[in-house]
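Archive transcription. Copying these from loose printouts into the bound notebook so they stop getting lost. Printout 1 of 2:
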Amino acid sequence: MPLKLLTRRRCFYLVLAAAGLAALAVLLALSFPQPILCIDSGEVRADCLVVLGGGSYERPLRAAELFRQNVAPRIIITGDGDFESNRRMLIREGVPAGCVSIEPKARTTRENALFTIPILQELGARHVILVTSWYHSRRALRSFRHYAPDIQFFSRPAYFAFARADWGRQGMYRYIRAEYAKLAGYWIVYGISP
């Protein structure tokens, strides 16, 4: 068999194997997103909680729960659109109004970080817990760490629709697929490593 044909065959099989491995990785990532997308730092204390906009009601409820556990003395709500309803929910859940600050301009996770970090720096916060949905916790944590490496960020996500049985009913498949695309986009466009 000529060497040229052998080399072509070898390249074909290598490309085929790489495509098969890539397809398997995508299938596994979509089938088991929790270990990849969800980051929970466990029990930590901080100077401030940051509640990212989006989700439904689960993010402010989780932040109120953490506040009642004395995990942090302050809460900053970031995000255009639902900041006022999140603020009302926090207060209704027992968080004193004076402990809640608002950053109302951010429309993306990147802007959440860019617009909230100066507030955190002004407060002198050194340790911060991010509160968001479980599937969004990796990108949120990576974004804040990317733009403020001098602040130590942790993640304590809300676990709404974490169980696979809830995914179809809650429309989670759409969010999970979108989150993988956003992780890749943030890496390519902003250099935020997933």
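Printout 2 of 2:
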Amino acid sequence: MAADVYLFGMTVLSTIHRCASALPLAGGYAEIGETYVCPGGEAMNAAMLLSGLGLSTALGGPHWGVETREGLGRYAERYGIDVSGVGFDAGFAGVRDLVLVGGQERAVLGWFGRYFSATERCWGEPDAEAIAASRIVAIDPFFPRSSERAAELAQQAGKPYVTIDCPLDGVLHQAAAASVISREYRASHYPGQSDEALFREYASRGAGLSIFTSGSGPMHFGRAGAAVETCAPFVVDVKSTLGAGDTFRAGVVFALLHGFTDAQCVRFAAGLAAMMCTRLPIADHVPNLDEVTEFLHKLDSSIRTRP
């Protein structure tokens, strides 16, 4: 089945504990207020959101296992996500994680190193036919050569693709229609480098739009040879920042597919991310386009009426 968006990336089954207060310090205690068992992962979150916005989606990436197939499949069916390209391994538990959320902080615990030490059983290769049949592609960088292969297939098929948190001199960034680089990735992979200098490097080496996100700080975006632009994040009452980056990337995919300008693209993505920061979990609170449009209108009105 042809889908508007083909997403090659992370899908996990998450157990999310929302603490009644802030996350405890080492040796401390916290009361669990709410618990959810639902899908997560960059690609799965984006697929659910894009489906809610009216686009058809198809997934590729990690095999589902005996502990994850039912839970992930239930939500895929709920949102009409095509998972025919996702493998199932009856000898594999599946990719799971445990997430603690407290205030605006979160901690993610998983077995990712163990799961992804055996590439032949933990994920499948990108689907060339699904990529060629799509209108746009989203690629996570977590599957070394397989992620690069997805980018190559997209280029061969003439399909734009959006990626996240990839090195400035890597295959993924060079031909991406947009690359979204988070503050956490910049701090861990380019310590000591200023955002200003690093952004110039990213913009000059990429064919598309480069975007630096910084949590509650300003976002910077631009293209090679153009001035760097800035967008302030929207201010909302945050319930959780879990999945904010996944949401932002989904907004970029939607915006590029609909021909938004760069500024409109970043604003839409930032607004969608802000909206989802008021909800937990993403999987149970996917908005439709009318809801997002109304939310953005209210945010704009609030900004205009501030003294």
